[in-house]
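Q: Focus on the shape:
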Amino acid sequence: MQLRRAFTEHPAAVGESYLEHFGVAMGFARCLGRASAAALVHAVVPSMCQTTASDCILELAEDIRSRRPDLADDVAVPAPAPLAATA
């Protein structure tokens, strides 16, 4: 019984089944993995993936805010700054 609760208690607390929660969590992992890879590429070649990591993180923050109405007023997510023109 204890083992079953480890897989169902938290998903139920956020109004999801285990499989729904699994899908949401995997989506977060995919987004964070993409952000991590983009940041790594950007670190090596600064002209590549200039906004990819921050775009992923902002998208994730918006998703979290939509799922957590209690955070909507506490977490400000600024719009991404426009890229500076290069000459």
User: Anything to note?
Assistant: Residues 2-68 form one domain. Residues 55 and 80 are 8 Å apart (CA to CA). The mean pLDDT is 86. Helices lie at 2-13, 18-44, 52-67.
